[in-house]
């Protein structure tokens, strides 16, 4: 028991001598100016009110000399301004001043008919100090302060039991209730702040995960495109000596080397992308869609309850299918698919217009939808923008441009401008923006 009491005394002493927070203004990190200024207004108001009141009460009611009353009143109220930055140091000053004032009042002529050891003004100032202290210090420090308040009041009551009128117990209860209430509000504020921080982190992680998933999906789809061309190279290089007569031996060896390098590239590509295929093995043999599948996509969207209009001239479609690269062909289809999915989720029942055309060496894809019908509830109340992340990645991949944004009537517009041949080196374009760490 003695060891336990010794440890408790040391812990309380350490808590009362070591501030839990650095010397900084209360609510100093708040983005709102009025929140940062509010503690100063409260502290200054109570100081201006309590200082003359305390002096008047000590002089007129208790009969304390004016000089002593002024010094005690200043020590009991002025540190409230210090409590905004250093609440624990301010508590020491006010606590000592209250105890000294109790000793002075014990010998004052007007104490017999007045409150002792804590006058009403001292109780009010002490409770205001508890608010500032509870908002900044640790729980162990607050418990130690509360116990010191009880011990000091109890010792003073023992010294002069005939002078006490129960204000020690009153201050003990009120200070405890104040600390508990401030602790609850402080805990709630910390929980809300952590929730906001966690929501920000979660949103960033969702955006990052969406970006990585879309890149993985693009990598799987590009694997099909590249693997097709590599397979063609392999077949042509292997069959060249049999299709072309009179090929020199050196040329035969060169074709064999090309075929061997193409096979090794295919093997390495499949090995590196095997992990990307692990979650989607059912659709590995499904041909990748392109511009020739836009009509089926529009019809499926109509069946989903969204009226859809597709505008793509037959001549433009024939030329696009003949000149567009596989990566651009696939990217254009995916952009239209994601845009229509957003219409279904956020604007059900709205008319969606798809326009695809050729302008010089560029393929333009525009998807415009009107506002959602008032009688139909959207499947999602607010968008996260993750679908636009995938669109931007695909446009960046082929070196194109993407323009998205709301329309004045409440609709939305997605416009992509893609070069027919794509990029010679898409990796250069992708590195223009920093990758997520």
TrEMBL record:
Enzyme Commission no: 2.7.13.3
Protein origin, superkingdom: Bacteria
Xref: Gene3D superfamilies: 1.20.5.1930, Histidine kinase-like ATPase, C-terminal domain
Domain Histidine kinase/HSP90-like ATPase: 331-421
EC class: transferase
GO cellular component: membrane
Molecular-function GO term, any one: ATP binding
Pfam hit, one: HATPase_c
Coiled coil stretches, renumbered: none
Keyword terms of this UniProt record: ATP-binding, Kinase, Membrane, Nucleotide-binding, Phosphoprotein, Transferase, Transmembrane, Transmembrane helix, Two-component regulatory system
Transmembrane segments: 38-58, 64-84, 91-110, 116-135, 142-160, 166-185
InterPro entries to which the protein is assigned, alphabetical: HATPase_C_sf, HATPase_dom, Sensor_HK_TwoCompSys, Sig_transdc_His_kin_sub3_dim/P
Domain (Signal transduction histidine kinase subgroup 3 dimerisation and phosphoacceptor) ranges: 214-279
Catalytic activity annotation: ATP + protein L-histidine = ADP + protein N-phospho-L-histidine
Protein name: histidine kinase
Species: Streptomyces tsukubensis
Lineage, opening ranks: Bacteria, Bacillati, Actinomycetota, Actinomycetes, Kitasatosporales
């Amino acid at each position: 028991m003695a060891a336990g009491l010794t440890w408790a005394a040391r812990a309380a002493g350490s808590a009362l001598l070591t501030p839990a927070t650095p010397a900084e203004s209360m609510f100093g990190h708040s983005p709102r100016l009025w929140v940062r200024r509010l503690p100063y207004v409260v502290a200054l108001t109570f100081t201006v009110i309590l200082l003359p009141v305390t002096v008047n009460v000590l002089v007129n009611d208790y009969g304390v000399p004016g000089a002593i009353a002024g010094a005690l009143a200043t020590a009991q109220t002025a540190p409230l301004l210090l409590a905004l930055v250093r609440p624990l140091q301010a508590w020491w000053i006010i606590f000592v001043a209250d105890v000294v004032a109790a000793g002075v009042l014990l010998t004052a002529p007007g104490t017999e008919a007045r409150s002792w050891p804590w006058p009403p003004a001292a109780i009010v100032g002490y409770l205001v100090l508890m608010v500032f202290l509870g908002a900044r210090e640790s729980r162990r420090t607050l418990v130690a302060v509360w116990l010191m308040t009880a011990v000091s009041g109890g010792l003073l009551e023992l010294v002069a039991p005939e002078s006490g009128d129960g204000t020690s117990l009153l201050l003990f209860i009120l200070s405890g209730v104040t600390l508990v209430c401030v602790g609850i509000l402080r805990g709630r504020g910390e929980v809300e702040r952590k929730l906001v921080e966690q929501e920000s982190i979660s949103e960033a992680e969702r955006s990052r995960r969406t970006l990585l998933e879309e890149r993985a999906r693009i990598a799987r789809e590009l694997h099909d495109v590249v693997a097709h061309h590599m397979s063609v190279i392999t077949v042509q290089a292997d069959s060249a000596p049999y299709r072309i007569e009179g090929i020199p031996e050196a040329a035969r060896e060169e074709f064999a080397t090309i075929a061997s390098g193409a096979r090794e590239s295919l093997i390495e590509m499949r090995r590196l992308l095997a992990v990307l295929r692990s979650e989607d093995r059912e659709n590995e043999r499904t041909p990748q869609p392109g511009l020739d599948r836009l009509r089926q996509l529009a019809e499926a969207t109509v069946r989903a309850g969204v009226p859809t209009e597709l505008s793509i001239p037959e001549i433009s479609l024939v030329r696009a299918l003949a000149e567009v690269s596989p990566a651009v062909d696939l990217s254009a289809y995916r952009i239209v698919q994601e845009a229509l999915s957003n219409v279904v989720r956020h604007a059900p029942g709205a008319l969606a217009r798809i326009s695809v055309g050729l302008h010089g060496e560029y393929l333009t894809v525009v998807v415009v939808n009107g506002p959602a019908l008032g009688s139909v509830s959207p499947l999602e109340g607010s968008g996260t923008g993750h679908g636009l992340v995938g669109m931007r990645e695909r446009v960046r991949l082929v070196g194109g441009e993407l323009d998205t944004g709301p329309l004045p009537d409440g609709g939305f517009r997605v416009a992509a401008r893609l070069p027919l041949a794509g990029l010679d080196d898409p990796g250069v374009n992708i590195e223009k923006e920093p990758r997520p760490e």
